[in-house]
Amino acid sequence: METVYVLRFLLGVAEAGFFPGILLYLTRWYPDRERPKVIATVMVSIPLASVLGGPLNGWILSAFDGVLGVDGWRWIFVLGGVPAVVLGVVFFLVVAERPADAGWLRPEQRAWLTATLEREERERAAAPTPRRHRDVFRDGRVIALCAAYFLLLGGAYPLTYWMPTVIGHVGSGLTSVQVGWLSAVPFLLAALCMFVTGRLVRDERSTTPVLAALGVSVVAFAATALSLGVPAAAFAAICVATMAAQTAKPLFWALPTAFLAGAGATSGLALINSLGNLAGFVSPFAVGWIQDASGGDDGLSMTVMILANVLAMVVVTGLRLAARRAAAPLPARP
What we know:
Blueprint: H1 2-16, H2 18-27, H3 35-43, H4 45-63, H5 72-94, H6 107-126, H7 140-154, H8 157-170, H9 176-198, H10 208-226, H11 231-259, H12 262-276, H13 279-293, H14 298-301, H15 303-327
């Protein structure tokens, strides 16, 4: 068992830089106006993994148990991990680092895309932004974005662990298989919502889309808590809450990638992602503690998601007001 703990820790260490690396890579290929769309497209994989992962792992667990003398749970690691490792190697060897290195682009396409990305990078670098790696720890916007992402994930993480339990409580008489399939529906709808919403955003620097998503999630979580006695209404409300909470993630990431540049982008994105993901421990723990203390009150435990999203809205609104003050012209001297 100790070996499993060590390997899981090492996997977490490897994963820590994976998502920030993806975001940084996207800034080297996509202009600002295209970035919300492509980030949303990439992050669709997260809810889809929730939709497909459970049934697939269940099938592997039963179909491969004992094959070659290996337990089914071990096959889950093998069949889930090996393709990811192989794909990572292929990506490293095949995919170009920057448009200038892409042989499949025509010369005029490479020239236009390279010039556009370099111009936008210069514009970000010319604005007040962290210049060095250590500067991100003193930048108020980066710290505020860390807090906002922590709160945003605090409102979304418990869904993965808590939803099957609540669906089982609300829909009495459901089998475990039925609960599993019903739990996949909100994440499938969330994937569709993320994909469509990313194509509707017109201003990658605007905080309005993420504030709207957070606001919808607050209302939907509150509606879920109030309608637990009516299974159909509760399920509809939790579908909307999941769609909004998951869609807020790619909408949020358009904000830091719009102003961070150079070394500040590398460290800033990593810091925001690392501190934000601490919510993966804090918020599910808080939900479990409330349920234990209240005797399993699902409605009361939803205050964690509601409060986290409300506070995330407060932090993002503060960033919005600060940006407006910074952009306002100084009053003329008499």
